[in-house]
Amino acid sequence: MTKPDRAAAVFDDLAAxxxxxxxxxxxxxxxxxxxxxxxxxxxxxxxxxxxAQTDEAVVASVAGDMSSPTGAxxxxxxDDLVAGERGAPGDKVLERWRTSYKAALGALRGCPPGExxxxxxxxLSAPALATTRIAEHWAHALDITEPLGLGxxxxxxxxxxxxxxxxxxxxAFAVAGEQGGPVRCELTGPSGEVWRFGDADAPSVxxxxxxxxxxVGAQRLAAKDSSLTTExxxxxxxxxxxxxxxx
Length: 247
Fold this sequence. Notes:
Blueprint: H1 3-26, H2 44-62, H3 74-85, H4 90-109, E1 116-119, E2 122-125, H5 126-148, H6 158-167, H7 169-176, E3 183-188, E4 194-197, E5 204-209, H8 210-217, E6 229-231, H9 235-241
Parallel strand pairs: 3-5
Antiparallel strand pairs: 1-2, 3-4, 5-6
Helix pairs in contact: 1-4, 1-5, 2-3, 2-4, 2-5, 5-6, 6-8
């Protein structure tokens, strides 16, 4: 697959992830929006508002209007943004998010190849930023659906999330203040295909299902509670520091 084809696949998968969540949100009764989500301190409406705000930030980034956060942590900034705009009814929050994710997709698809976009404290290509948006929409979809007892089946779109978790392991080690080293991952996707990331001769390895790997990286599952296995000098540490996000 060529680079343009890979980029298009990432954008298409982001669209599919948003559409899957959209279908679930569209069926919610008005009172459900004020129920607590699995995201600490946030209602379901708050989670969707956060997704809308961050999709709007994607559009701003593409337009060159985003600056790096300073001082407060990313989590604090996100909490403050939600607190400052919460209160709209669910149907209005859903409408805002629909508008924002479609605008974000259009902006990312229109980026020239090789262009770098400001995001949090670093710069990313448009496909890489789309990958982070898949990871965030997927994780927050779990925050919404699990407390409601709704199904949100894993799909092969998790390959993007797993790639992101592996790709950012050096960053995760650095944030945790731990020494890391080469780690490969051998993960079984929802369709049964084995996904391999990293050098085949890396001395450390994480093995198991992609769904659990991605949930650990999203802090939706504790590594000790997963069935993932590790080998080598850095495998266990890599699983402990794994993250699919920047904060």
